[in-house]
């Protein structure tokens, strides 16, 4: 294996990273964890550095190593205190849509005049806030914020209609803007 395929990430001060039972746990101002399947990659954590290298010479193994490195870097940013914010916009032209946050679920009512509300799940410790026609999804975990925003958008997806005419729904308008930290 060539030495150039090894990906190294330096661990900043005030951040600790450990590996337990296939999970990577990153602690700083916040604590984030994510489980990884280490089929094609080798992950080694030393005092101030993480070394990720593909086990095989396949391109897919190197791609998995790069993805793993990106996920860990995002976790480090979240542990430092960077908050990821997704902005969604409520769009309707036929029936006014109401969006309510109820516990760990989001209830979208009156979509196309429907009697039954659409439900979207909130992932992890994500905070969802509705202000007028905008919905803000915030989390220190980029994956959780992105998946929650996608759940909201997918709950309002309407099939078998022309989307140019029936544009009613909740759509992502701004992705993963970093705030704070």
Characteristic terms for this protein:
single chain, alpha+beta, Outer Surface Protein A, domain 3, 181 residues, 13 strands, 2 helices, 3-stranded antiparallel sheet, elongated, 4-stranded antiparallel sheet
Describe, in plain words, how this protein is organized in 3D.
By secondary structure, the protein is α+β, with helices and mostly antiparallel strands. It folds into 2 domains: 3-80, Ribosomal protein L6 (Outer Surface Protein A, domain 3, Alpha-Beta Complex); 83-179, Ribosomal protein L6 (Outer Surface Protein A, domain 3), CATH 3.90.930.12. The chain is built from 2 helices and 13 strands. The protein has helices spanning 59-80, 142-155, and strands spanning 7-10, 16-20, 23-27, 31-35, 41-45, 49-54, 83-91, 98-102, 105-109, 118-121, 127-131, 134-139, 169-179. The strands form 4 sheets. It has a 4-stranded antiparallel sheet, with helices on one face. Strand 5 (41-45) and strand 6 (49-54) form a beta hairpin.
